[in-house]
Design goal:
By secondary structure, the protein is an alpha/beta fold. The protein has one domain: putative 2-phosphosulfolactate phosphatase (Alpha-Beta Complex), CATH 3.90.1560.10. It is 37% helix and 22% strand. The longest helix has 17 residues. It starts with a strand and ends with a strand. The relative contact order is 0.23.
Length: 246
């Protein structure tokens, strides 16, 4: 396996050359996607703009929820924001979710040309790594925060890369992948827990934004490592649709 990592949204991506792209937006889009599908949502449709989301949802408003945020806050007129706490079974079970976020859905769009795309969070970290361990080429796409590299995405990329190198001895890592592996190992040293990961989120740009806006509890929700072991996999490209796998 050749394992590549894009550390920030501005990085050059040769996504059409890779078998699999793993999109990472720990705080909070890919965590929300994992949570929603685990709680029974039928599918998630991601899009870049608010107008696009509204138009897509209007096709079947009865069975569709408009979801997403701008500047960490729920968009006016939308059903749900971008906190995993909002995505309970009684709210999303059987529903199609149309999702647009500041960073995560843009990262998904940049990965669109990859042959397969998965959304990854700490919640489904190990399950996803196990599923793609025999692919020939994998690209880790960090969404970042407001155009900047952010620590929580780097640590998750490192955790995924670390697991893949343990699962597949043939992994060949690029320099940026080596950087994220070292960042993960140096910070956690294979002693990671939900609490220790959540504490590190408090130091990052994305984490500080959430605390300032009253979403501090989401740091623990987004750090709940391997708590929802499902796959979040793209099943169509235009628009990008994701469903769950066992």
């Amino acid at each position: 396996m050749k394992l590549y990592t894009s550390l920030s949204p501005g990085s050059r991506l040769d996504v059409e050359r890779v078998d699999v792209a793993l999109v990472i937006d720990v705080l909070r889009a890919t965590t929300v996607m994992t949570t929603a599908l685990a709680k029974g949502a039928s599918e998630i449709v991601t899009c870049l703009t608010v107008n696009e989301a509204v138009k897509l949802a209007a096709r079947d408003r009865k069975n569709t929820l408009l979801c997403g945020e701008r500047a960490c806050q729920k968009i006016d007129g939308f059903d749900l924001g971008n906190s995993p706490a909002e995505y309970s079974s009684d709210r999303v079970d059987g529903k199609t979710l149309v999702l647009t976020t500041t960073n995560g859905t843009r990262a998904i769009a940049t990965a669109a040309l990859a042959r397969a795309v998965y959304a990854v969070s700490f919640l489904n970290l190990t399950r996803t790594a196990q599923h793609i361990r025999n692919q020939k080429s994998v690209l880790l796409v960090c969404a970042g925060t407001d155009g900047y590299l952010t620590g929580e995405d780097v640590w998750l990329a490192g955790a995924i890369a670390d697991r893949l190198t343990n699962l597949n001895p043939s992994v060949e890592s690029c320099d940026s992948t080596a950087i994220v592996i070292n960042a993960w190992r140096n910070r956690f040293g294979h002693r990671e827990t939900t609490d220790s990961i959540a504490r590190t989120f408090r130091e990052t740009r994305g984490g500080r934004n959430l605390i300032r806006l009253g979403f501090e509890d989401d740091l623990v929700r987004c750090a709940a490592i391997d708590s929802l072991p499902i796959l979040v996999q793209r099943v169509s490209r235009e628009p990008s649709r994701f469903t769950s796998g066992g």
